[in-house]
Every structure is written in C-alpha cells, then in structure tokens.
Design a protein that fits this description.
The complex is a heterodimer of chains A (about 140) and B (about 180). Chain A is built from seven helices and no strands. Chain A folds into two domains: about 50 residues, no CATH class; about 70 residues. Chain A is elongated and about 115 Å long. Chain A is mostly helical. The longest helix of chain A is centred in the middle third of the chain and has 32 residues. With about 180 residues, chain B is mainly α. Chain B folds into two domains: about 110 residues, Rna Polymerase Sigma Factor, Chain: A (Orthogonal Bundle), CATH 1.10.1740.10; about 70 residues, Arc Repressor Mutant, subunit A, CATH 1.10.10.10. Helix content of chain B is about 75%, strand content about 0%. Chain B contains nine helices and no strands. In chain B, helix 1 packs across helix 2, helix 3 packs across helix 4 and helix 7 crosses helix 8. The radius of gyration of chain B is 18 Å and the shape is globular. The chains are: A mainly alpha (about 140), B mainly alpha (about 180). The interface between A and B is medium-sized, with 27 and 34 residues.
C-alpha cells in the first residue's frame, strides 16, 4: 500500500478506527501516515467533545419569553427611516453645495459696484447700474 | 391523549396556535439544533444564541411549512442556513477587529485547565474546519455532529446522495491536508 492510497482510503472512512488490516500494517511501518492517522483520531475526539456539551436548560424559557414579546415595529421601520434620512441628507447636501457655489461666483465688477453702494455713495448707483448692464450685455 | 405525538401532528397543532405543541417540538429538537450550531460556531454561547434564533424563526415561519419534508429536515435546513449567515457576520466582525477579545474567551470557556498543546490543537482543528468551503462544511457538520446518514444529509441540503458523498470525501481530504 502506498501513502497516497492510505490517505485516500482514510478520507473515505467514516471513522479512522474503521481502517483495514492492510492500512493498519502500513501505518505501523510509515511514520508519516501514522501522523495523518493520529490527526484524524484527534479530529474525531474534538468532535465528540463538542457533541457532549448540553444545551442550557433555560433555553426553552428564553425562547418562550421571546415568542411572547410583542413585535417591535421600530426594528422593521428602522431601515425605512434610515433610507429616507439618507436621501434627505443627500438632497440637502446638493442644495447647500449649489447655494455655496453660486454665492462664491461673485462677479468682480458686481463687488466693486456693491462696495460703492455700501459706502452710502448714492451717486454711484447709476454708475453701478451702468457697469452691471454693460457687463451683462457683453 | 397521545404522550408522544408525531412531529406532523404537533406541527398542525402549532399552526392552529398551540404553543404547548411547539414546546414539545423544541424539547425534541433543541439538543440536535444546538449540536449542529456547535459544529459551525465552536462556541457554546454563540451556539445557544443560534439555537434560539432557529426556533423563533421556525415558529414564525410555521405557516409556510408545507410538510413536503419532515419537520426535522426543515429545522436542520434553517439551522444550516442561519449558521452560514452567522459565520459570514463573524468574519466581518473579525475583519473589523470586533471579535479579537471574543476569540480569546471562546478558547478559554470550554476547558480552562487544558494544557497549552491541547488548546493549540483545538484551535488548529477549528481553523481547519473554518477553512472548508460552505458546501463541504454543511455536509461535514450534518454527518458528524448531527449523525445523519448520507441520504438524510442530501435531503436537508437538497443535493444528490452522490454529490453529498463527494463533498464529504473532499471535506475529509481537505481537513487531512490542513491538519498535517
């Protein structure tokens, strides 16, 4: 028996203890296959250890209590609320970005005109209108 | 009154609002569901949480259970699917670094006095089992933890017996490689 045959046959067995006499003989002469066999035994030990754990006797009571709880509708509503809130924030973001962008686009000519205006120099109002009008007509 | 009514009768009673019937079903299957959960999660607290989720889900979905398969097959299917989802969530949590402490606890909770080598061995086995792909993991857990035969495993997973056998063989082979 080759090592490859041994490992393949071992993989097809339900439990490592089910090995044939031929595999047994190979195992005693091949340290590598003996190690593979040992690992398989340890794996089965691990599984049986986990299987011996018992479920908590209180689990049934916990489940019954959960089933008695009224449906918490806020949990169901939460994804909808989150979606709507995200959309509102997104739209507000776009609107505020547009407002900021448009306020930043101040025409240099307009700002000069405004400076005159805010200096209470009413005489410049006509000039301002003229400047702005000329500018927009271009 | 029948002391040991079959599952089918109990399911019908649950559908008609009989909570006692559901408690009987729970008593019948809770250990098996818990064992299957352990096979996937390897942590007692997580496995109990999953068992709880499975029974709540099954109670709420009982109306949709048409009885084409047995109640056992149906509840194992729910367990397997929920366990895989839980593993995905755990992976995400581990990726986000949220489970760093929890991993330590789970290693310590089962046997705090275990010698270091034994503990390392257990961790190595858990790692190897985690590395199996989902299909192989499902077959392996149902076969070894649930002790279902190949035909029953195939029924739960809605696979052919041949495909189930092949997945089980590959799972054992991969575990052999990982543990060597």
């Amino acid at each position: 028996m080759t090592c490859n045959e041994f490992t393949t046959e071992l993989s097809s067995l339900k439990y490592p203890s089910d090995i044939s006499q031929e595999m047994q003989n190979h195992r005693t002469t091949c340290p590598q296959c003996a190690r593979v066999y040992h690992e398989a035994v340890v794996l089965m030990q691990f599984i049986s250890e986990e299987k011996t754990l018992k479920v908590s006797p209180f689990l049934k009571t916990h489940i019954a209590a959960k089933l008695d709880e009224p449906l918490n509708t806020s949990w169901y509503a939460r994804p909808a609320i989150l979606t709507v809130a995200s959309i509102i924030v997104f739209i507000l973001g776009i609107v505020s970005a547009n407002i900021l962008e448009s306020s930043e686009k101040i025409n240099p000519m307009e700002s000069i005109a405004s400076d005159y205006y805010f200096q209470n120099n009413y005489g410049t109002q006509l000039e301002e209108i003229w400047i702005n009008t000329n500018y927009y007509e271009e | 009154m029948d002391l040991f009514p079959p599952d089918k009768i109990l399911v019908d009673r649950v559908k008609n609002g009989d909570r006692e019937a559901f408690t009987t079903l729970m008593e019948r299957y809770q250990q098996k569901v818990f064992q299957t959960s352990m096979g996937f999660l390897h942590n007692q607290a997580d496995a109990e949480d999953l068992t709880q989720e499975v029974f709540i889900k099954s109670y709420k979905s009982m109306k949709s259970f048409r009885g084409e398969s047995s109640f056992g097959t149906w509840i194992y299917r729910i367990t397997v699917n929920k366990a895989i989802n839980q593993l995905r969530r755990n992976k995400l949590r581990a990726f986000a670094g949220l489970d760093a402490m929890k991993g330590e606890d789970s290693a310590a909770d089962t046997n705090a006095d275990a010698p270091l080598l034994r503990k390392e061995q257990k961790e190595q086995i858990k790692d190897a089992l985690t590395k199996l792909n989902n299909a192989q993991k499902k077959v392996f857990v149902l076969f070894y933890y649930q002790e279902l035969n190949l035909k029953e495993v195939a029924e739960v997973l809605e696979l052919s017996p041949k495909a189930t056998e092949s997945l089980l063989f590959r799972a054992r082979k991969n575990l052999q490689k990982e543990l060597d």
